[in-house]
Amino acid sequence: MVVGRVLERVWGLPPALTARVRVRRAVPVVMPDEVVLLADVYEPQGVKHAPTVLVRSPYGRRGWVEHACAVPFARRGYRVVVQSVRGTGGSGGEFDPFAERADGLATLDWLERQPWWAGRTLTFGPSYLGLAQWAVAAEAGERLTAIAPFAAASQFRDQTYLGEAFTLRGCLSWSAMMARRDLGPVRGRVAALRESRRLERAYLTLPLEEADVAVRGEPIPWFREWLRHADPGDPYWTDTRDHRARVADVTAPATLVTGWHDLFLQSQLADHAALTKAGARTRLTIGPWTHTSPALFGAALRDALDWFGTLARGGVPDGDPVRLHLQNADEWRGYASWPPPADSRAFYLHPDGALRDDPGKEGSTSFTYDPADPTPGVGGPLLGPGGGPRDQAAVEVRPDVALWTSPPLPADLDVAGPVSAVVHLRSARPHGDLLVRVCDVAADGRSVQVCDGLVRLTPDTHPARDGVREVTVELWPTAWRFRAGHRIRVHVAGGSHPRFARNPGTGEPLATARETVPQHHEVLHGPPHPTAVFLPVLRA
Predict the structure, then answer these.
(1) Are residues 75 and 202 in the same domain?
(2) Is residue 281 a part of any domain in this protein?
(3) What interhelical angle do 2-11 and 294-312 show, nearest 10?
(4) How many other C-beta atoms lie within 10 A of the C-beta of residue 313?
(5) Once rounded to an integer, what is the mean pLDDT over residues 271-286?
(6) What dihedral do alpha carbons 293, 298, 301, 304 form, nearest 10°?
(7) Fewer CB under 10 Å: which end of the chain, C or N?
(8) Structure confidence at residue 1 (pLDDT)
(9) CA nearest to 505, candidates 366, 376, 368, 398
(10) At residue 182, does pLDDT exceed 90?
(11) Which range among 95-99, 188-192, 241-245, 487-491 shows the weakest confidence by mean pLDDT?
(12) Which one of 186, 202, 228 terminates a domain?
């Protein structure tokens, strides 16, 4: 556990209560259908009536799960149960991604039958480990003392289909990783290296449902299920994998930590809003992090230790209910609620490439998206590495990206909250994608992504009137300081590959489409068609 102790110092965790932790490995937990799930139990020595922290993971029970989710709590007086979910880490049954409600509730029943259970259960963990918490939180009710799902959400469908476009890079790379979960450390590393070289080719595979074979050499069942069940209301998602409708029923105090560049940010904000509306006790922290930032783990651990420790003692956590990091200013700010007090300010796109605060003259700007040479995505809210604010130089020189740039700002401009755009669009084809991105352009010309959003266009979701569509794009929320002398830049494009699957332009089903066609678009400007981006400017 030396590695864990080093990480604890790096993360700035409070002093440990005990240095002696006993671990019982592979403890069997029998489910109602007789399937046996395995758990490791961490027991702090010399601590009486230790509260229990439950962690349910598909990523095994050792490695980062042990160092970041188990040992820090055990050394601070908590008994920690780390369980491998069904079909992973030696647990029996078949892995069925995101279907964690039944096993999670059965595990709570098992916990409460143990002679060492002290009457208090808390849950912790990021991403999938966070979804596993939401899966049981509403039904568990007061059986849970507190929960701490971070960089996670109560449903994963919206992250699979952001803006109704399939998030190809995250879904395929994660599926390939999980498909090799039982190969062991050596064979797993060899397979990972081999598959990393295959991924770029696989991202361009058509039909898309065969991309898994291009990576793994064999089908990945759940990857194909996600592609086949693309509709928002499909029972595949709503019956067992979507818990958002019950978030308002959660009684356990919930602390939520995420990053501005985390794939789950929008959905985690929706969960926070549901809790707040229901009058639940909750806290929200958003920092300058991506989904896999080590600093995010450290912040979440510090936050949970404070949250759990206070509530386990019957106290009320203090501090601001909402804590936000203002990027490019390196400032933390506290607020009573989300979003913070701000005024929406429109920045209009002009036909000469200018970005100004008036609608300007009537005109248009054209670009063509070709799926055979897809517009690349650089940075942004990714599931894996490479995300966050990145220089967009390689993107901005492409002819399939339209650009608008403001004059240099006379003073600092602080924005925080939801960002949106309304684009008046004339398209040659009824099917396509529309991406809008906001960048910060420094004095040296470096253009860094602040936030973006993409919407999949169909004749049903975005019908044209007199040949023109009015498309609202919800960009990623942000908190950012545009410094004096910097300029604001807006990109409009037809995709961001491989973060999003290419739109073939034919209207064929996503899974089975084989043909692609170029898609020509015309962005309209001026008083009749005031295309604009709306930034939430913080009030003084």
Answers:
(1) no
(2) yes
(3) 90
(4) 8
(5) 98
(6) -80
(7) C
(8) 62
(9) 368
(10) no
(11) 188-192
(12) 228
Looking at the fold, whether 84 and 22 belong to one and the same domain comes out as yes
Report the candidate in 166, 519, 521, 210 with the shortest Cα–Cα distance to residue 371: 519
Both 253 and 283 in one domain: the answer is yes
Quote the CA–CA distance of 413 and 468 in Å, as a whole number: 33
Are 534 and 345 within 8 A, CB to CB?
Answer: yes
Q: How far is CA 365 from the centre of its chain?
A: 32
Q: Which two tokens stand for residue 68?
A: 């970041």
- Residue in the structure block whose two tokens are 């069925």: 96
Q: Hey, what amino acid is at 302? A: R
Query: What's the rounded Cα separation, in Å, for the pair 535 and 518?
Result: 31
The whole-angstrom separation of Cα 377 and Cα 387 is: 10
**Containing structural domain, residue 24:** 2-159+235-319
Q: Dihedral (C-alpha) 444, 353, 349, 447: value to the nearest 10 degrees? A: -20
Of 455, 434, 503, nearest to 206 by C-alpha is 503
Question: E-assigned strands of 105-229?
Answer: 121-126, 144-150, 161-162, 165-166
Encode 343-379: b = buried (16+ Cβ within 10 Å), e = exposed.
eeeebbbbbeeebbeebbeeebbebebbbeebbbbbb
Edge-to-edge strand order for the sheet containing 401-405? 401-405, 487-493, 432-441, 447-457
Sheet of 331-335, strands arranged across: 21-30, 36-44, 79-84, 52-57, 121-126, 144-150, 254-261, 282-290, 322-326, 331-335
Mean pLDDT throughout 373-390?
96
- Same domain flag for 131 and 280: yes
> Could you give the angle at which helices 185-202 and 168-179 cross, rounded to 10 degrees?
150
The distance of Cα 429 from the centroid of its chain, to the nearest Å, equals 31
Q: Do 479 and 518 belong together in one domain?
A: yes
Same domain for 221 and 245, yes or no, is: no
Q: Please tell me whether residues 185 and 296 are part of one structural domain.
A: no
CB-hemisphere CA count at 13 Å for 291? 23
Which DSSP helix (H) or strand (E) runs through 85?
Answer: none
441 in a structural domain: yes
Give the long-range contacts of residues 331-335, CB within 8 A, separation 24 or more. 331/481, 333/416, 333/479
Query: What is the largest distance, in Å, between two alpha-carbon atoms of the chain?
Result: 75
In this structure, what token pair is assigned to residue 358? 């008036």
User: Which are the contacts of 252, defined by CB distance < 8 A and separation ≥ 6?
Assistant: 137, 140, 141, 142, 144, 145, 146, 147
Strand partners, 303: none
At residue 504, the 3 state secondary structure works out as: coil
Q: If we measure between CA atoms, which residue out of 83, 250, 68 comes closest to residue 150?
A: 68
Average of per-residue pLDDT across 404-416: 98
Alpha-carbon span 302 to 299, nearest angstrom: 5
Q: Is residue 330, in this structure, part of any structural domain at all? A: no
Q: What is the pLDDT of residues 188-221, one digit of tens each?
A: 788 888 888 899 999 999 999 999 999 999 999 9
Compute the average pLDDT of residues 156-174. 97
